[in-house]
Specification:
7-stranded mixed beta sheet; 17 strands; about 35% strand
Length: about 240
């Protein structure tokens, strides 16, 4: 089973990781051979490079004692914002990454706060080009005493499809029932930061529901996620721990 899983991952280009500059980088290939690079910036901030394009997810300049210099990066073609909290939504970071051709894609609340952008609500779909599409999916809390953090219907997760490579960026959520509808995911970013998102037990349940080929726990703060690769080993999920504290 392990050899078969490795073979499938290799055929999909879902193997190997490398370091680029100051950030860990994982490189994947789409079925037609186009390269996709993921740079682990911080917490929930992800830089994605695809086919000459720059995609930034929830860019923030500062978190704890870590800072990100977005002025040293290329301007973004697309910026995705999941919700309004300060560890996901940073107006100044957006300004530093914007050019006249940049499209900012965000939920309704962030659109109001920013004053512009391509607004998406849960289940909206957006076709950006022949080979790029985005679907907004629910992201919310369900545990009693936590629902005020991320109420149902307000925030977004995103399924980003790049030349057939399906990437699930969950945003701040628990293991909600809607995850059963999320299928054929190649790469998933799932949050693990109690009490705001998932416990490690919830993340394992979510991973077993979604069954991504590769899983990056992210947004994990001080939560110990080191045991997740072992816990999900027999489920055929390649868990990669990067600096998404």
């Amino acid at each position: 089973m392990k050899k078969l899983t490795t073979l499938i991952l290799a055929l999909l280009g879902l193997t190997g990781a490398s370091c680029a500059s100051d950030y860990e980088m994982d490189t994947f290939h789409t079925k037609s051979g186009k390269e996709v690079r993921f740079h682990a910036l911080v917490h929930a901030s992800i830089r994605i490079q695809y086919n000459g394009l720059e995609i930034q997810v929830d860019p923030v300049r500062e978190l704890g004692n870590r800072t990100i210099d977005y002025t040293a990066m290329p301007k973004a073609d697309y910026i995705l914002i999941t919700h309004e909290h300060g560890d996901h939504f940073d107006k100044e970071a957006i300004k530093q990454l914007e050019d006249k051709g940049t499209m900012v894609i965000l939920n309704g609340r962030c659109s109001e706060m920013l004053g512009y952008g391509e607004k998406m609500k849960n289940y909206d779909q957006l076709h950006l080009s022949e080979d790029i599409s985005i679907e907004a999916v629910p992201a919310y809390n369900i545990t009693e005493g936590r629902t005020q953090f991320h109420p149902k219907g307000r925030d977004n997760g995103y399924i980003l499809t790049l030349d057939g490579l399906r990437i699930y960026i969950a945003g701040d959520t628990e293991d909600i029932p809607e995850m059963a509808e999320i299928k054929d995911i190649d790469i998933a970013f799932l949050p693990c930061n109690q009490p705001y998102t998932m416990t490690t037990e919830q993340l394992v349940r979510a991973a077993r529901t979604i069954r991504p080929r590769v899983l990056f726990p992210y947004h994990y703060g001080q939560t110990n996620v080191s045991g997740l690769p072992t816990e999900l080993k027999d489920d055929g999920v390649d868990v990669r721990i990067r600096h998404y504290e």
